[in-house]
Amino acid sequence: MAGKFDLFGLVWRFALALVLVLVTFNPSGHSYFHWVRDAVAAGAFDPLMALAGVALAIGWVMFLKATHRSLGSLGLILTSAFFAAFVWLLIDRGILEADSTTAISWIVLIVIAAVLAVGMSWSHIRRRLSGQVDVDDVDD
């Protein structure tokens, strides 16, 4: 995936980001957040939950660090603003109901995954658009 970048690479990164985001939390009630919340309330937190939490934390650190490194603070703000404006457009055009908290929650989670996927892919996208190569890119 590192050598060649195409639409499949972007979709793959989006799918991985979406899995990370939705496994961490989603409005359906089937997520790590809900699993741990219910276990803590019952006094049944166990090592498997801790292991899953550490695995999720590793995934988040990888995605967030790569996204911030690739986009930078300004790029992260602009990418988030782009997707926020897109959601606003969907609400304004009546495609998305603003009073549905569940729908908005799902959209926000998808937008977070999209921002992470763009961040993970940005070096490849910029190279294809501009022809510029990052210093980190090494030919094998």
Account of the 3D structure:
- This protein is mainly alpha-helical and 140 residues long.
- The protein has one domain (7-130).
- 75% of the residues lie in helices and 0% in strands.
- It contains 4 helices and no strands.
- It has helices spanning 7-24, 32-42, 47-92, 101-130.
- It is flat.
**Overall spatial form:** flat
Helix/strand order: HHHH
Mean pLDDT rating: 89
Give me the secondary-structure category. mainly alpha
Number of strands: 0
Q: Low-confidence runs (pLDDT<50, min 5 residues)?
A: none
- Helix amount: over 70%
Q: DSSP helix count?
A: 4
How many domains make up the 3D coordinates?
Answer: 1
Radius of gyration based on Cα positions: 18 Å
The largest pleated sheet is described as:
none
Distance between the termini: 14 Å
- Amount of beta strand: under 5%
Would you summarize the structure shown here?
The chain has 140 residues and is mainly alpha-helical. It is 75% helix and 0% strand. The model has no long low-confidence stretch (mean pLDDT 89).
